[in-house]
Amino acid sequence: MPHAPLPGPASHTYYSQRLRLHYVDWGNPEAPPLLLVHGGRDHCRNWDWVAEALREEYHIIAPDLRGHGDSQWMIGGSYSISEYVYDIAQLLHQTKLTPLKIVSHSLGGAISLRYAGVYPENVEKLVAIEGLGWPPDVVAKRAGRSTQERVTDWVDTLRKLSGRTPRKYPSIEEAFRRMQDENPHLSPEQARHLTIHGASQNEDGTYSWKFDNYTRANQPFGMGPDEGAELWSNITCPTLLVRGLDSWASDPEEDGRASHFQNARCVNFADAGHWVHHDQLDGFLKEVKAFLAD
Hints:
Layout: E1 10-16, E2 19-25, E3 33-37, H1 48-54, E4 59-63, H2 81-95, E5 100-105, H3 107-118, E6 123-129, H4 136-143, H5 147-162, H6 172-182, H7 188-198, E7 199-201, E8 207-209, H8 225-234, E9 239-244, E10 264-269, H9 276-279, H10 281-293
Parallel strand pairs: 3-4, 3-5, 5-6, 6-9, 9-10
Antiparallel strand pairs: 1-2, 2-4, 7-8
Helix pairs in contact: 2-3, 3-8, 6-7
């Protein structure tokens, strides 16, 4: 008899810096652990297609980053990479799932790469989809601004965001169309799934995205390119750097960033933008399955 379809993931809560944070667990606890970390203004359920394909082989957990999905928003604080790294460190400390493998995207990739640079003994394999941040020329241009300019830009951004209420869509269909417009590579089924899990209904019946608008603010200070490269050089596990050729991201081999890694391989996907794991799901899964199992 055919097996009954496995149920969806179970929701769980953990705490970091007094924040109530959410993650989903896809079961199979006897299997090797695998962490999936989403990107900015996204949510943990964006990994559902990847998790469905890998759940038989791995014990998968996928968190909602602070200020995203069903995790709590910051009050009186900010969203920095270091705080995100702390949240991931707390999740793995509390669940005791290290050492483990990680697949990550964009902001989640940046977080995972830094976590692996701080705790290299905890990561066995690491996939980062465009997790190296802005191209070096963009970073250099921003670094050329004075301290005063960086701080005043940050203050001005926060003031603008303080007066910005979450955008309201009259119906889930309107939010769905916005999702489609944002990424034309998505199939209608993908866009609808991401919308359903990424939006919540307001008291007046409208719908808004779940992420906190304050996550849009870039911090005026933090780790610079040299500190980031130092952490990348600490990573001891095999690392797969994934990029979509239709994305804004630059080639890490051509711009020199791949040279900071001890054991990294770069792979590019045609007909894919920033969300490679959506735009070229089958090819991405084939590459990742082989990489994780190798």
